[in-house]
Every structure is written in structure tokens, then in C-alpha cells.
Amino acid sequence: MSRDEKIAIIGSGLIGRSWAMLFASVGYKVCIYDILSEQIDSALKEILVQLKKLEESGLLRGKISAVEQHKLITGCTDFKECVAGAKHVQECVPESIELKRKVFEQLDAVADDKMVLCSSTSTMPASSFTEHLTHRAQCIVAHPTNPPYYAPLVEVVPAPWTNGVVISNTKSLLEEIGQTPVVLKKEVLGFVLNRIQYALLNECWRLVQDGTISVEDVDKVMSDGLGMRYAFMGPLETAYLNADGWKSYSERYADTIFNVAQDFGPTPRMEGETLEIVHNDLASRIPLDKLNERRAWRDARLAGLAKLKKEMNEK
């Protein structure tokens, strides 16, 4: 199942490789751009390894084999050649505003009037690096959850000047490759996923910092507590079900939530003594030279959870 349509990926790192796999899973021809040919070669080899592992474990997406999907993915060190003829360009360079501006200026110079110019940035609104572009109405953010292949949520964040067709086409494309897009109604720094994640991280940090709980145990609060609740529904629906609707929940708990929130304290900086405590605790259980092994463990479980959710949602 190969398509004539092309997707261009700018950057061959983890996020770029994941996007390439997702687009290839439904038959798109994918071209990955990077400055160095050895980086592209390494990415293509790693993609094949990952696709074969997914196929062996029964977790490969799409209806074509791992080898067939891999054949749809090529690499290129020529920026213009990579982008030429693409319906959608997914930028995946490091989180640097200067680098984003440079890449989008390059895209602006070679884009036609229909090409979607999409950034994978995790915090920076598209308006911060596209305002001066000729094709700025074609620019948008599609921020994936890391790791994208196993966690399907993607935040679609248009700039104030993004064309409505670009928004709908991006959402449809993401749904087509099996992701779960959510469209933000306006730009906000950090978008939604990271703002919620940062709120959680900050409170976890404060609780460790003031000696309330250990690093290991605060993580268990999420993995064996809140995470279990939130695996199939969000916090608002969870609360809704924990009472007789939200009005009932508010009557019971709104004052308590407000009073506890007043006790949270200032936003902490992740540095100093607490940084040493958190890092050393985690490093004692997961040595830095075992990170890839632990990431593989995580990815396997995320893939299994995604498969379970799909099966349960189909019932």
C-alpha cells in the first residue's frame, strides 16, 4: 500500500524517526533531511531495527510489513530536494528559536502555496518564528507526545494567521496515521500537555524538597495511583465520575481543592540540593548507562497499553 504523496521530515533524531515511521505505516513516501549523511544512515538503520521489533511483537502499525514500510523511507542531505513535492513538512530540529527561524525561512523559500509547514516544537508558538514569512498562513505546530509511536496524542497549535484549511488538513492527516490530535483554540506558551506536566513536576519537586516523600514513592503516586485513573480518561471526567457530576463534585471538594492549592508555595527552580537528591536517587536505580534499556522497557509497556486501549475501545 504505497501512496504517490510525499512527506518531508527535517531532522533525523528520535522525533524525526518516529514521525517517519508513523507516516510510512499508512503508505506515505517519506524523505528525511539532515546535514550529515552518516546521521541519515544511522537513522535509517535504527528505523529498520525498530520496525522489525514492532513486527515481531505484534505491535507494528499499519497493514504493510516492516520491510515494506522501511522501503518507503529515504534520506537526503539536500534540503530543497527533500522538501520538493511534499504535501506536508514536519520540522524536528532541536528546541532553539534561532534554529526554528532559520529552518522555516529555508522552507518559506522553497514551499509552494499548498504545502503544510509544520513544527514539532514542544513549547514555542508558531507565531514566534513564522510572522515574517511569505507562507506564514501555511505554518502550524503539531507537538507529539514523546515517544510519538507509542503515545498518540498530538497538540495541533495554529498561529493567529494559520489558514483554517491547514488546521483541518493537519488534523485529518494525524488521524489518518493513527494519532490523536487535539486542536488548541489559541496559542499559549508551552501548549497544554507541558503546562499540565510542569504543574505535576513542580508539585512533585516541592514535596521531595520539603521532605514530605521520597523520590521513588512520589513516582508511585502517579504510576500506581493517578496514572491508573488517567490511562483511559482525563482528570475532569475522572472527577465528574467520582461524584454525581461536576456540580456535585464542586459542592463537595471545591473549597478543599482551593485551600490545599494555597499551600503549594512558589514555583521551584530545579537546582541545588533537591536536584542532587532526585538525580542520585534515580541514578541509583537506573544507572545512566542503562537508560536505553529502561526506555525500551517503557516503550514496550506503552505499546502494550496502546494496544489494550485500542482493543477495549473497539468493544
TrEMBL record:
PROSITE patterns: 3HCDH. The keyword Oxidoreductase applies. InterPro entries: 3-OHacyl-CoA_DH_CS, 3-OHacyl-CoA_DH_NAD-bd, 3HC_DH_C, 6-PGluconate_DH-like_C_sf, 6PGD_dom2, NAD(P)-bd_dom_sf. Pfam families: 3HCDH (PF00725), 3HCDH_N (PF02737). GO terms for biological process: fatty acid metabolic process. The keyword Oxidoreductase applies. GO terms for molecular function: L-gulonate 3-dehydrogenase activity; NAD+ binding. Coiled coil: none annotated. This is Lambda-crystallin. It comes from Owenia fusiformis.
